[in-house]
Amino acid sequence: MPIKIPNNLPASQVLEEENIFVMDADRAYGQDIRPLRLLILNLMPNKSVTETQLLRLLGNTPLQVEVDFIYTESYVPQHTSQDYLTEFYGTFAEVRHKKYDGFLITGAPVEHMAFEEVAYWDEVAEIMEWSKKHCYSTFHICWGAQAGLYYHYGIRKHPTGTKVFGVYRHHLCVEHERLFRGFDDEFYVPHSRHTEVHREEIEGVPELTLLAEAEGRAGVYAIANLAKRQFFITGHAEYDPLSLKQEYDRDVAAGLPIEIPQNYYPDDDPSRMPVVRWRSVANLLFANWLNYYVYQETPYELDGLYRVGDD
């Protein structure tokens, strides 16, 4: 939460220059508080695992958050029962009349396929178009990030050859970006994917800003269109400590070609417990998004929400 200080306190300028969020008394007294409304399009097969990962982070702030989950009607999930979906999820048709403070779209295990070949692509594209006028800020993760960059800006995904798999060191590409307030100069994030977006294609779109990237094979990590409040995150800060281990063990058991995840096991020894390097990163990333780009920005009356630049 921000530091509330007296109006025009000289320290405020110093704090702002140090990237510390401050709020003067007039703004603080004028704020109305209500729960934030978030929508999550969960495209992962094991939906309960992804729900837990995201809710753990979204719930780790002083903010009140209300979450709706939806799944795609155009494709029936194979690893989640219909009873579970009926009890805990809705469909796009059931929420399309609503407005949300924030919208998250998860990854999906379909990155080997062209976007148009994915069974639910038309529905996902419709939801992304709808989100521009019904959701104040959007947060795209992994395949969701690639899908958003492709749909909104025509940026293609490219095969990586061998899988980008492990915990990679990252650095920021901009200074004083609110999404990364509190981050160290270098930070670690898990990645698990077979495709990537290229830096030069992102730099060719004036509306987009490259916020952070990884060293080595993981490449581009965070991209934003700050004017439209869209964020595209190619890694998995939300992963549990054993997520990469479970993927690795699954592929080894199935006899599939898989490398030991990088920077994950001590001495690259899969018989040892992994080292978690990204827990604080995950909590900061989601808390910063919720605070600075949702809570502090969203209009109090969502019924009047209309995205700047959308006609």
TrEMBL record:
Record site: Important for acyl-CoA specificity: E111
- UniProt xrefs under Gene3D superfamilies: 3.40.50.880
Positions annotated to bind substrate: K163, S192, R250
| Name of the molecule in the record | Homoserine O-acetyltransferase
Give the domain of life. Answer: Bacteria
Q: Which reaction does it catalyse?
A: L-homoserine + acetyl-CoA = O-acetyl-L-homoserine + CoA
What does the record give as its pathway? Amino-acid biosynthesis; L-methionine biosynthesis via de novo pathway; O-acetyl-L-homoserine from L-homoserine: step 1/1
NCBIfam families, per database record: metA
Whether S-adenosyl-L-methionine counts among this entry's keywords is no
Q: What is its main location?
A: cytoplasm
| Residues of the site described as Important for substrate specificity | S192
Enumerate the SUPFAM superfamilies for this protein.
Class I glutamine amidotransferase-like (SSF52317)
